[in-house]
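Worked example 2:
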Amino acid sequence: LPAPSAAAASIQVGERWLRGLQVGERIRLLDARQAQRRLEVVEVSPKGCWAEVHKTSYLAPGLRLTVERGGRKTHSHIGDFAPQPGVLRLKEDDLLILTADQTPGRPASHDSRGRLLTPATLGCTLPQVFADVRGGEPVWFDDGKIGGVIERADLDTLQVRITHAPGGAKLKGDKGINFPQSTLRLSALGDQDLAALAFAAKHADGIEMSFVNSADDVRALLAELERLQADHLGVVLKIETRRGFDNLPALLLAGMRRGGFGVMIARGDLAVEGGFERLAALQEDILCLCEAAHVPVIWATQVLENLAKKGSPSRAEITDAATGVRAECVMLNKGPHILKAVATLDELLVRMQGYNSKKRQMLRKLELASPWAD
């Protein structure tokens, strides 16, 4: 039977044996390392049961499970495990094939002498982009951890040569793919977006538009909100692509037609799209332009991330978070130490307000605004 709900692990066992389990019973087994282990049944339901183990256990298909009840032992065996998301190990100069059919990825195969037989392959969940990318254009994976160059492109596959994977890198499933120099002709609002907007119009206070690229994208969003009679919703544009950054003046003019309008500096994808070495300048330009337009800004992505996740911040991220005083809002991601991160951020920003006012900038000429100066 399938697991009744999400759990740290789930195992398949015989249905008849499972139906006989009772709360409080102990399931004994010899695990894959020949260690004696015990699972205690803590909850039973028609769809399965919950059991707890208090020592590390190494489970494998075929291991025998035993319950003793009234002097009589009953047995079952662990069935095959459900398929788990795979990991591709990539290093620089490797070849990676992106496919449009969304088949599960597989690692490269080699002969006994280490010669490449078949390159690693990976399915893409948005095959429409294959028609828009060209050979020679860069591609990045997992927020810039792995990068490559497209050597050949057709409607079914992209052949990518890995150029950035310091020391070798692991690529897991469901990670983002960026094409920073490709002009992608994607609809601003897909079917899922439209369904989400309809729900938000009834239940939410605000929405954020991801990967906005042009004023037409903003106008399409506002038209849909008007159709839904959702003027009460706040709208935040996430600036996370190079096209979105280049078109920011037009995005602001389109969005400022309504109240409750703001911008998020989504620094994760923006760093990949615009280049990590340019991120500081990009976010400065966004802050200055939004200040001139009186549009509030959310400062986001990896703010005090080490502190939130590990309990101890780096010096660099403290300095980075301090710069966020120039925005109207600073966003933190979740983590086991999030309360400590919120308290630290509060103290830090209060202190920085004595040193910096976001309205006292040099307001130098911005390359971003040059096309609008005529």
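The longest strand covers residues 36-45. Residues 202 and 318 are 39 Å apart (CA to CA).
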